[in-house]
Design brief:
The protein is globular. With about 70 residues, it is mainly β. It has strands spanning about 1-5, 5-10, 15-20, 25-30, 35, 40-45, 50-55.
């Protein structure tokens, strides 16, 4: 679900999920996974575990927004 500056994903299992939301380098996952961009510019969530995973969009200059998935 989309809620302002965050996206909530209910992951059924660990693994990759393509989200039909345009990727932003300002997306941050603090726990439960990581995000990166697909070749087409969509957001790819790599869920480390099942359950709710929150993706936030932040312009906080103190956050390390380097690519999260290796």
């Amino acid at each position: 679900s989309l809620d302002g500056d965050r996206i909530l994903v209910d992951a059924e299992q660990p693994g990759l999920m393509l989200l039909r939301i345009r990727f932003s380098p300002h997306f941050v996952v603090f726990e439960g996974g990581c995000v990166t961009s697909s070749e087409d510019g969509w957001t790819v969530l790599d869920a480390a575990r099942p359950g709710l995973i929150e993706i936030e969009s932040s312009l906080d200059p103190d956050l390390d927004l380097t690519p999260q998935c290796e």
